Amino acid sequence: SERARAGYASSVCLHHRYVVSVRMLAYLISASKSSKASSFLKRYVCLRNTLATRSRR
Question: Rounded to an integer, what distance in angstroms lies between the CA atom of residue 41 and that of residue 47?
Answer without folding.
Answer: 10
